[in-house]
Amino acid sequence: MHDPKFEQEVQRKMHDLEFVPSETVWENIRRDMAPAERRRWIAAIWWWLVPGLLALTAAGVSYWRSGPGSIRTVRPGAAVRGSDAAAGKRIGKKNSRGGNVAWNQGGTGNAFEEGVQGASGNGLEGRLQGRRSFAERRQNGIAAQQGRPGKAATPDANLRQRGIEQTTAVPFLTGVRPSAPVMAYTPGRIVGFGSRSEVGAPFLYARPGNTALSGIPRPERSWRFGFSAGAGSSTLEGVQGSRLVYGTAGYSYYSGSANALVPASNLSITAGSPKRFLADVKPDLSYWAGIFGEKRISGRWSVDIGLNLHYYSARLETNEHINYYAPSSASLFQPTAVSFAANTSSGYANLVVDTYLNRYYFLEVPVAAQWRINPRAHLPLFWRGGAVFSYLMSSDAVYYDTRSGNYYKSNGVARPGQASLQTGIMVALPIKRLDVRAGAEAQYAVTGMLRTGSSGGHLAYGGLRLAVTR
Amino acid sequence: MDHRQLVNDCLHGDRVAQRQLYDEFAGAMLGICYRYTKSMADAEDVLQEGFIMVYRNLHQFSFAGELGGWIRRIMVNTAINYLKKNSRYQSDLLFQEGGLHPVSDDDPEVTLSTKELAELIRQLPPGYQTIFNLHAIEGYSHVEIGKILGIKEGTSRSQYARARSLLITWINKVSPANQNESSYARPKV
C-alpha cells in the first residue's frame, strides 16, 4: 500500500492547474445554444395573439349583451340591507397543456455515474469517433455521453419545423414543447385580464423518448404555477355622494366630521330640514388571493396569467348628525364661553357621520408582463405591468343619484365586466427552495362602475402583493 | 457568487449568466481536460463538449453539492469518453496486463511546479495517465475505476502502481516538460 502523501501532494498541485481557453471554445458552445431567436419571437407573438383576440372578442360580446337592471331607492339614513347578490359564474375554463415530468428515471442527477453505465457497455454508445469537425459533432450529437439505453428515434414535429436536425434517440431531455397558455373567459361576460408574476425554479418538462437534439437544446421555458395574494385599500375614484346634515336652527353646531364649531346660519339648517353637503368616497380595505401561471419568454421578460378572487370596498358618507351644540351667542373668540351640550333630540345617534361601506366581489383574470430591472444583481427587481379583466360576482353597494339626491341599491346597475390597468414593482426574496416575490402594485379600472353615466366612479386599488412558487 | 441564482438564470436562457458560468469554471476545467489528453487542442475539444453537456443537464443539478464539483464530474466523464472514442487514444487504452515498466515504492517529495508536474503526467501512456488521474487526483477507488473503464479492479491497481512508479522515476530525474504538445512516444509492446 502506498503512502498517500505523494497522491496528496499531486492532488494539491493539480488543484491549481488552470489554463485560459481560446475564445473559439465559447463561440462554438454559444453557437450550439443559439437556435433561431427570430423564429422563437415570432412564435411567441403568434402564441399570444390568438388568445388575446379571443379574449377581446369575448369582452366585446359581453359588453353588448349586458341588459338593464332594476332600481330601488333607499331613503337616506335608513338601515340598508344586503341586496340580492348576483350569482357568480365561474369564468372560463383553463386549457393548459404541459409536457411530461422530467425523465431521469432512476438517475441520480450525476452525469458521471450515468457515464459509468455507458462506459460499461450497458448504455447507448455515442457516435463521436475520432476528431470530427464541429459541424460533424452537431450532426451526430452527443447522445452516448449519457450512456443510457436509447429508444427508437421519434421525430418531433416542432423540432423539424425549426430546422433542427435529429440524430440519435436518447431518452433524456431533448425536445422543447411549450404548453398552451392558460386562458380564462366567460361566455357573455368578461373577463379578466390579469397579471400575476412569480418567481420560481422552472419546471422543465420533457417527453420521454424524444429524439436528441444535435447540440445544446434551448432551455425549457415551461409554465410555472403558484399562489399569490395581496392586500391594500380600494376606493371609487371620481365619485361624490351627498351628506345630509341634521341639526336644530338657532344654535351653533359642533360638527364632528369638520371638527369645528359651525354656526347654524352658515349651515342654513332649520328644524326638520336637513342640509345636504357633498361627500367624497373614502378608501377602505381590499384584499385578494388566487393562482397563476408564468412563462419566461426571454432572459429578462416573462408573462403570466392568473385567476383571483378580489374584494373591494369603499366608504360613502351618507348622513351627519351633529351631536353637540352651543348657544348662538357663543363666540368662537371666547372659547371658554362656549359650552357644548349633547343633543338628546330623538333620532340623533351618537355617530357623527353615517357611512355606508360599499363591497364588491370580483373574479379576476390578470394578464401581465414582467421585466427584470437589474439582470445581474443578487436581489432581483422586477417591473410588472398588464391588464386585469374582472367579473362582478356580487356586491353590496349603494349608488348616489344626483337628480333625486338619493342613494339607492340595484342589482343590475353596476357594470359586471371591468377592465383595469395594473402596474407594480416586485423584489425576489432570497428564500431557499421557494421562489417568493413581494412588492407593491396599483390598479385602476378604465371602465366605469355603472353601466351608464359616470357617477359610478372607477375602482382603484393599491396595496402589497406576495407571490410564491416552488 | 450566488450559484443558485446563476444556475436559474442559465436555465432561463440568460446569455450573460451562461457566459458567467463558463468564465468561472472554464479555466480549472481546461486544466482537468489537459491532464487527460495529449494536446491543448484535444483538451479544448473536451472542454467544449463538456460544457455542452453541462448546459444540457444543468436542470438536473439540485444544489446537493458544489456546482464546481458537479461540473468537474461531467468534465472527467467527457474526457474519458473522448479518449475512448478518439482513434488517437483508443489503442493505448487497452489496459493490458503486462510488465511495461518497473514498479517503485519510492515516495519522493514533489518539488516540481504545477505545470511541470502536469506535463509529466501527460507524458504517461494514455492508459496509465487516465488511471493515475482518476485515482491519484480525482480520488476514485479502483473498484470505481474498473466500472468506469470497463476493466478489472486488479488491472486498475497494477496499472496505477506502474503509472505511479513511472511518474516517480521521472520526478526523480526531473524530466523536462513540454510546454504544449506532448512528446509522448508510444512504448513498443
> What would you call the structural class of chain A?
alpha+beta
Low-confidence stretches of chain B: 177-189
User: DSSP helix count of chain B?
Assistant: 9
Which percent band covers the strand fraction of chain B?
under 5%
Task: Give a verbal description of the structure.
The complex is a heterodimer of chains A (470) and B (189). Chain A starts with a helix and ends with a strand. Chain A is built from 7 helices and 18 strands. By secondary structure, chain A is an alpha+beta fold. By secondary structure, chain B is mostly helical. Classes of the chains: A alpha+beta (470), B mainly alpha (189). At the A-B interface, helix 1, helix 2 and helix 4 of A face helix 1, helix 2, helix 3, helix 4 and helix 6 of B.
In short:
With 470 residues, chain A is an alpha+beta fold. Chain A is built from seven helices and 18 strands.
Describe the secondary-structure layout.
The complex is a heterodimer of chains A (470) and B (189).
Chain A lengths: L3 H11 L8 H10 L4 H29 L6 E3 L36 H9 L14 H7 L16 H5 L4 E4 L41 E3 L10 E14 L2 E7 L4 E5 L4 E4 H4 L7 E22 L4 E21 L2 E4 L13 E2 L10 E20 L8 E16 L2 E3 L4 E4 L7 E13 L5 E11 L12 E12 L1
Parallel strand pairs in A: 5-9
Antiparallel strand pairs in A: 1-15, 2-3, 4-8, 4-18, 5-8, 6-7, 6-10, 8-9, 9-12, 10-11, 12-13, 13-16, 14-15, 16-17, 17-18
Chain B lengths: L2 H9 L3 H22 L3 H18 L9 H19 L1 H4 L23 H10 L2 H12 L4 H8 L3 H21 L16
Helix pairs in contact in B: 1-2, 2-3, 2-4, 3-4, 7-9, 8-9
Keywords:
heterodimer; A: 470 residues; alpha+beta; 9-stranded mixed β-sheet; 4-stranded antiparallel β-sheet; 18 strands; 16% helix; elongated; B: 189 residues; mainly alpha; 9 helices; 65% helix; globular; disordered C terminus
